[in-house]
Write a structure and sequence with these properties.
The complex is a heterodimer of chains A (about 325) and B (about 375).
Chain A: E1 3-5, H1 6-20, E2 24-28, H2 44-48, E3 53-55, H3 60-73, E4 76-80, H4 91-97, H5 101-104, E5 114-119, H6 135-138, E6 144-146, H7 151-163, E7 168-173, E8 181-183, E9 197-200, E10 205-209, H8 213-226, E11 231-235, E12 238-240, H9 244-254, E13 257-264, H10 269-281, E14 290-294, H11 304-307, H12 311-322
Parallel strand pairs in A: 2-3, 2-4, 5-7, 6-7, 10-11, 10-13, 13-14
Antiparallel strand pairs in A: 1-8, 6-12, 9-11
Helix pairs in contact in A: 1-7, 3-4, 8-12, 9-10
Chain B: E1 20-21, H1 40-65, H2 79-88, E2 94-96, H3 102-107, H4 112-120, E3 137-138, E4 143-145, H5 152-166, E5 173-178, H6 185-197, E6 201-207, E7 210-211, E8 214-215, H7 228-232, E9 236-240, H8 244-259, E10 265-270, H9 293-297, H10 300-312, H11 316-339, H12 358-369
Parallel strand pairs in B: 1-9, 2-5, 5-6, 6-10, 9-10
Antiparallel strand pairs in B: 3-4, 7-8
Helix pairs in contact in B: 1-2, 1-10, 1-11, 2-8, 4-11, 5-6
Classes of the chains: A alpha/beta (about 325), B alpha/beta (about 375).
Chain lengths: ~325, ~375
């Protein structure tokens, strides 16, 4: 299997699906000739032409609004929003329209898009190039939300997202776009939506994490192991609807859980995960569930490495939970 | 029309403005310059559809006042704009509605029963009771899905038309919106994308003078809404929106242009909202009754009636007969809709996703185990 980084794996998935299915179109700002500001769509314009790889005017609302229309027609648009921080001009189209279309039309008009968008911090991007707004879409009935942590999953989850009947927000953790490398299956390769991955087996503490923070959790778990604490790490992969069975099975075994995410703490996905654990595994808990997250502040520039839930913040939470 | 007493600037049907396309003269004759050449049976069918829309509007308002339905948003005074434009679209063309165009949905074949079912939100409602009255859909008639947010359908209609162009298939798309929607983000986005990509889109602005209580001069400082097209490279045309023939003419021209691959057109149909925004609105709070008289004289239905009286000798007796027929049809539909049950409880969870995910299964099961599982009503 070839070695790829995340950018190459996502590009490979798009190319594969565009060859397989002529209904798939890519549109967005700078996705055409230049291949996207992160080069994720590089080469697609040359292969598929500007009817299928479309540089659009600079308007996220226009991109998503027209993509919805294309989807209603029967195309399978995969629009790119250049940074997830810039998705909000399209929020009305996503929340009021895309997410509701099948339901509000009594099933007559399913509207299916995969919105790809780079997410997360750690690239010195400041407030407007670093946020993790996934919870703002999870709260909306009708959307699925995905965030891969490695190249093979990125390809497999993207192909599964494109073939899924529902609209998907596909968050790509930009901090590991090129840093995360690995073997990626050639040709057709899907990873089912709604299935988490247990990336580290352990007995003492469950860590639930996704995207770029997986590597911080792994680092913290290795350090905790030196202190005799054996962590189990769940890479959620599909953030919504999430894989409740894998989480609950693990928590019933360990009785202890730490949830890690970059997004602000209050009303983040971590809060929902903890609530679900309380509902479904309360009597198995040996310690209060902990959240290690971004702060309830705007995302900072200079102090971004203090804001992010890096391993130096995850490790004390693991120890505290284990020794409670 | 200088006689208009209310304060809406630039808006009154100005028969003298040289740019406004007008065909139907006050005496019921047609100006041959822009006459679209409708057959008399077509005109009569459209007249019947306009009268049917008017009757529906009046009866549905009464139903709402009696508390039998929750809401109605009507098209009284705008029947020529809506039916003339729907008529001008070809069978393979699509219509993306705002929320005031039930007459276009009926024109496209939505059975009256299904529309009335939507008014009651019952189990046979095309949208399964999930939206307010007048938020329906009719895909088999190539008619889109109504939502409440303003302007969102505009970019979607552009994307839909763009997709047809990408696939090299012959379909134009007409999108309805009001004068207020020209202030929305999505009007700008839709016009801009349509201009850049030359999509086969017909932007149909029903300039009815009002966005709830806000008059047109609070929406724009432009002289006309049609001229907004200039900035986007989209040709604009104004027509007398209470003149069925003018509406058909400009819409047909726009469709022909789209089909030739020349791109979008914006039509501004000058018409007037004779009632409130909806049954939830009281227009007396913001516009004087006296100002309506000039508009009532321009009511599209009597104007068309003068024409068919001249051309085919339509009589008062025939009007009476038509009203009796339409009234009976509507009464029957209401009786059926009122007796039809509410949608089943489990339908609340269907169509959110393609398949029911675990969390919705849990919530559905909880509801079905609960006290409302047996015998919920409307």
């Amino acid at each position: 299997m070839p070695q790829m980084n995340m950018v190459q794996a996502i590009n490979d998935a798009l190319r594969h699906e565009m060859r397989r299915d002529s209904r798939v179109v890519v549109l967005g700002e700078d996705v055409g000739k230049v291949g996207g500001v992160f080069r994720v769509t590089q080469g697609l314009f040359d292969e598929f032409g500007d009817d299928r790889v479309i540089d659009t005017p600079l308007s996220e609302g226009g991109i998503i609004g027209t993509a919805i229309g294309m989807a209603l027609y029967g195309l399978v648009p995969v629009p790119e929003i250049q940074f997830s921080d810039f998705i909000f001009p399209a929020y009305d189209q996503i929340v009021s329209e895309l997410a509701k279309y099948r339901y509000r039309s009594g099933g007559e008009y399913p509207a299916k898009l995969v919105i790809r968008t780079p997410t997360g911090g750690g690239i010195r991007g400041g407030h407007y190039h670093s946020q993790s707004p996934e919870a703002q879409f999870i709260h909306v009935a009708g959307l699925k939300v995905v965030c891969p942590s490695n190249p093979a999953d990125a390809k497999g989850l993207l192909l599964a997202s494109i073939r899924d009947p529902d609209p998907v927000l596909f968050f790509e953790p930009k901090r590991i776009y090129r840093a995360a490398k690995g073997e990626v299956p050639e040709g057709d390769h899907t990873v089912p939506l709604g299935k988490a991955s247990v990336v580290r087996k352990g007995q003492h503490v469950t860590i639930v994490v996704w995207g770029a923070m997986l590597y911080e959790a792994l680092d913290a778990a290795n350090q905790a192991a030196a202190q005799g604490i054996d962590c189990e790490i769940i890479d959620l992969r599909t953030l919504w609807p999430l894989d409740i069975d894998t989480i609950i099975t693990s928590v019933k075994k360990t009785g202890r859980v730490v949830v890690v995410h970059e997004a602000p703490k209050s009303c983040g996905l971590g809060g929902e995960i903890v609530a679900l654990i309380n509902e479904k595994a309360f009597l198995h808990l040996e310690a209060p569930p902990k959240r290690v997250t971004g702060f309830d502040t705007p995302f900072p520039y200079t102090l971004e490495m203090e804001y992010l839930p890096l391993s130096h913040r995850i490790l004390p939470a693991i120890i505290e939970t284990a020794r409670y | 029309m200088e006689g208009s007493a209310h304060p809406v600037a630039r808006h009154p049907l100005d028969a003298h403005a040289p740019d406004v396309v007008r065909v139907l003269r006050d005496d019921g004759t047609l100006d041959p310059t822009n006459d679209p050449g409708l057959r008399s049976d077509e005109v009569l069918t459209l007249y019947r559809a306009m009268v049917r829309a008017r009757l529906l509007d009046e009866r549905l308002v009464l139903l709402q006042r009696q508390g039998r339905i929750g809401f109605h948003i009507g098209c009284k005074g705008e029947e020529a704009s809506i039916l003339g434009s729907a008529f001008a679209m070809r069978q393979n063309d699509w219509i993306f509605p705002c929320y005031r165009e039930f007459a276009a949905a009926l024109w496209r074949g939505m059975p009256l029963q299904r529309y009335v079912d939507n008014m009651f939100g019952n189990a046979n409602d095309p949208v399964k009771g999930r939206q307010m009255p007048d938020h329906y859909t009719w895909k088999s008639g190539k008619f889109g899905s109504v939502s409440s947010p303003i302007g969102t359908q505009i970019t979607q209609a552009v994307g839909f038309a763009w997709a047809a162009k990408i696939r090299k298939e012959d379909a134009a798309v007409l999108v309805y919106f009001g004068d207020g929607a020209t202030s929305s983000n999505e009007f700008h986005n839709g016009m801009n994308f349509a201009g850049v990509f030359k999509t086969p889109t017909v932007f149909f602005c029903r300039n009815n003078g009002w966005a709830i209580s806000v008059p047109t001069e609070r929406q724009t400082a432009s002289d006309t809404f049609a001229q907004k097209g200039i900035a986007y490279g989209v040709p604009g045309v104004r027509c007398d929106g209470n003149d069925l023939f003018a509406v058909v003419k400009v819409t047909r021209d726009a469709v022909a242009r789209a089909v030739r691959g020349e791109g979008p057109t914006i039509i501004e149909a000058l018409t007037y909202r004779l009632e409130g925004h909806s049954t939830s609105d009281d227009p007396k709070a913001y516009r004087p009754e006296a100002g309506l008289d000039s508009w009532r004289r321009l009511d599209p239905i009597p104007r068309l009636r003068r024409h068919i009286e001249r051309t085919i000798g339509w009589t008062d007796a025939q009007d009476k007969e038509l009203e009796t027929e339409l009234d009976a049809e509507l009464k029957a539909a209401i009786a059926v809709a009122e007796k039809t049950q509410a949608p089943p409880l489990e339908s609340l969870f269907e169509d959110v996703y393609g398949e029911l995910p675990w969390h919705l299964q849990e919530q559905r099961d909880e509801l079905l185990r609960g006290p409302r599982a047996k015998g919920h009503g409307h």
